[in-house]
Sequence to fold (375 residues):
Amino acid sequence: MEKILDIIEAIAHEKNITKENAIEAFKEALVNTAKKLTTQESTFVPLIDQDTHSYSIQKVITVVADDDPRAQELADSFIGIDEAKEYDAEIEIGDELQSEFILENYGRTAAANLFKELEYHIQRRIEQDLFEKYKALIGTVMIGTVSRIDGNENTYVEIGELKGILSQRNRIKGEKFKYGDTIKALLRFVSVDPRFGMFLELTRTSPKFLEALMAREVPEIEDGAVEIVASARIPGERAKIALKSMQSNVDPIGAAVGVKGVRINAVSAELKDENIDCVEYSAIPEIFITRAMSPAIVQSVKIEADKKALISITADQKAKAIGKTGINIRLASMLTGYTIELNEVEGISERSGESGSTKAAEKTTNTSALEDLFK
Fold:
């Protein structure tokens, strides 16, 4: 086992893990191997010398009082003070006696056990590195290739070193994938299952997926010039997203929509043509709620207790405010965080070209008020 540290470094390079992690795995393997060759109650401390590429294992025995039951029950780890003084007259309770444990003395049995332990702990370090790597990517868009679709319509996606699972409930309604398709999805969790090992849980229905796609498509969001404050979705149907400009010369809605809607249309196409409303955020709840209720024209907003908002609206705007199957008012409530109730008031808010031209005609044809000026 003279060149084993060189072998450890080679394994670290081959398995793409850090040298430090490989050394820690080797230390654990040494301790477990020593315990298998003696007793599980024994205490061992591995020592690694990086300069000479050598290692040693120290067996540690702690000095306790003579009447301490551990001295009898765990004799491999504890020793009474009177017996310990036979080795060192100046020793005290709490001190430790150390002696070198030489694996080579146990021949092939030691080598075989050490190989199995090292293989196990290296694999655990690889999995830990992968877990930490993908844990840092939670909330980002992953791109992978569909490898399988099971009977429950769960879609399995190959992403880097791991497999991602896009379950039916995390898929936009009506979406269907086939083997070989390249898909985008948001990484929700990194999970470890005793049967299937480590896998990535993906979603295409989360509002965070919409936000991540917007950040990829809109440079101003990626650069921090525009901030996404909140978002709400009914996946595959409609969404609202609240934007705030962090720079006075940047229009958040214009930046998100893009020239001729090219940016927002690209995001919509990825979400199965989901309609996306961009709303400018306001710290004033009444203004924010009014904007969130678009395209309906709101007469007034009254904020009540328990985050409740009472909105006054005319009859001609009620259908727009509610939306098909109540989708508009639901999204506005989700976006703002307020429970919204409608209060119908008298009047007409419809701003059509026809009504506007009629009013203009009335103003220009009725000139009786000006007759005195021309007498």
